[in-house]
Specification:
single chain, mainly alpha, ABC transporter involved in vitamin B12 uptake, BtuC, 12 helices
């Protein structure tokens, strides 16, 4: 059961980080508040299932659609006013905080405020989580390799030139934000129906930072990179629970190491392939020899 819990957690993190990859990696908009979309998806799915009798799969879809709709409502005025860079990131961080505080203060028998909702039926299974994750990753893979994905890259690399070439900047960014929010909403709903309890404290700014750290670790312009990084970091944090108070220190060191030795992330601008993996292991002895020569300061090893 513990292993299944870790795998399902990995699946929800993969979905969230892949959604963030579209917004941040491919479109160039940093977000520090995606946990807010996850919170909206979780509460929407749980409340519609418990109080309206909506079936599990439809509740998941409603959670994602509601998060996407909120992304549209937040994104349209924000992007129409040309907020970008740090300003957009701060705006999204404020959004995540507002969502958490609103739900935290809704002390009624339905939402239950800071107490949270318990006794949620465990409808998410290992296989449903794996299937939904695979389907969403497959969709995102095809999406970023479509013409729209090329438009996103054009906006991310040179916004002015992309606009001169006929790319609708606001529309492109808005669609990226809505899809990214939809993915986080689905992830939140999946997680809620697995852990059987949700509260605003499950969706703090720390979770948003976790997503961003995972994305940077895997590679911002990749889909398979963040997938691998999500699996790696989630597993690492599970085995390092006794160092929970050192989470920010670990993340800080992780950023330093990545920026020093692999600034483009695990996969960088490439996608995972078995052929590339085999080539990496074939070249590994030569790379280790080069590193050893740099450390010792002489040719031929130690």
């Amino acid at each position: 059961m513990y292993i299944q819990s870790v795998i399902v957690t990995i699946c929800t993190n993969v979905i969230s980080v892949v959604g963030l990859a579209l917004l941040t990696g491919y479109t160039g908009m940093f977000s520090l508040g995606h946990a807010g979309f996850m919170c909206i998806g979780a509460y929407t799915a749980v409340l519609t299932h418990l109080h309206l009798g909506i079936p599990y799969l439809l509740a998941l879809l409603l959670g994602g659609l509601t998060a996407g709709l909120v992304g549209l409502i937040i994104g349209y005025p924000t992007l129409r006013n040309r907020l970008r860079g740090d300003y957009f990131a701060i705006c999204m961080m404020g959004f995540g905080t507002v969502v958490r505080l609103i739900i935290n203060n809704m002390n009624n028998p339905i939402v239950k405020g800071s107490t949270g909702i318990s006794k949620i039926p465990q409808l998410t299974t290992l296989w449903s989580a794996l299937f939904i994750t695979a389907a969403l990753v497959f969709f995102m893979w095809n999406f970023v390799h479509s013409q729209f994905g090329k438009n996103c890259l054009a906006v991310q690399q040179q916004e002015v030139a992309a606009e001169m070439m006929g790319v609708d900047i606001v529309k492109t960014k808005l669609i990226s934000l809505v899809i990214s929010a939809f993915y986080c909403g689905i992830a939140g709903a999946l997680l809620a129906f697995w852990i059987q309890y949700i509260s605003p404290n499950n969706f703090t700014d720390t979770k948003s930072n976790d997503f961003l750290a995972t994305l940077v670790t895997g590679g911002t312009n990749s889909i398979t990179g963040p997938v691998l990084a999500a699996a790696l970091i989630t597993t690492m944090l599970e085995y390092l629970r006794f160092l929970a108070n050192w989470r920010l220190v670990i993340y800080g060191l992780l950023y330093v190491v990545i920026m020093r030795f692999r600034p483009e992330g695990l996969m960088g601008y490439r996608e995972f392939s078995f052929r590339g993996t085999l080539r990496f292991f074939r070249e590994l002895p030569a790379r280790l020899k080069g590193i050893r020569e740099k450390v010792t300061g002489r040719k031929g090893g130690v």
